[in-house]
Amino acid sequence: MSSNGGITQLVLFIAALTVAAGVATTLTANVSDLSSSLDTRGDSIVEGIDTDVEIISDPGSPESIYDSTDGEITLLVKNTGERTLATDRGIDLLIDGRLITGVNVEVIGGTSAWQPGQTVRLTVSETLDPGEHRAVVRVNGDSAEMMFYIEQP
To answer: Pfam families in the record, alphabetically (predicted)?
Structure first.
């Protein structure tokens, strides 16, 4: 009977090693996935920290923001952060809570990159009614907001 007991213990030992190897493999894969996710999230947080923009258009001069003749909104936005920003993607414009598409982005000064300290001109065709309006510009997780008022013609 002692040989049966030894075989049983050997089988149980092999089964325990197999289960332990499976658990270790699963844990290693999960830790690797978690580490990769944290690296990706950390990179996006760093981008957000280095990104800072401000709308520098004059809200006291609504004619400089909205041209009622052409139905065109123009906003000046300055890169006050520490990194160069892309102008071909990642810039969202919301007017009165609506995402506006077809925004033309032009770096003032003729360069192709939106470097720290430089200003871009955002222009979009959009008809606005007289009254108070809110513009929000979002870039890489940072946002700037401005209220402006359009008077009756």
So the answer is: Flagellin_arch-type
The secondary structure of residue 61, as a DSSP letter, is: -
Segments in the chain forming alpha helices (H): 2-50, 62-65
Residue-number span of the structural domain to which 29 is assigned: 1-50
Instruction: Provide the pLDDT for residue 2.
Output: 54
Give the integer Cα–Cα distance in Å for 141 and 107: 20
Q: Are residues 46 and 62 in the same domain?
A: no
| Per-residue confidence (pLDDT) for residue 41, from 0 to 100 | 65
Q: Distance between CA atoms of 4 and 35, rounded to whole angstroms?
A: 46
17 & 57 share domain: no
Of 99, 83, 66, nearest to 91 by C-alpha is 99
Low-confidence winner among 35-39, 40-44, 54-58, 77-81 (lowest mean pLDDT): 40-44
**Is the pLDDT score of 118 beyond 60?**
yes
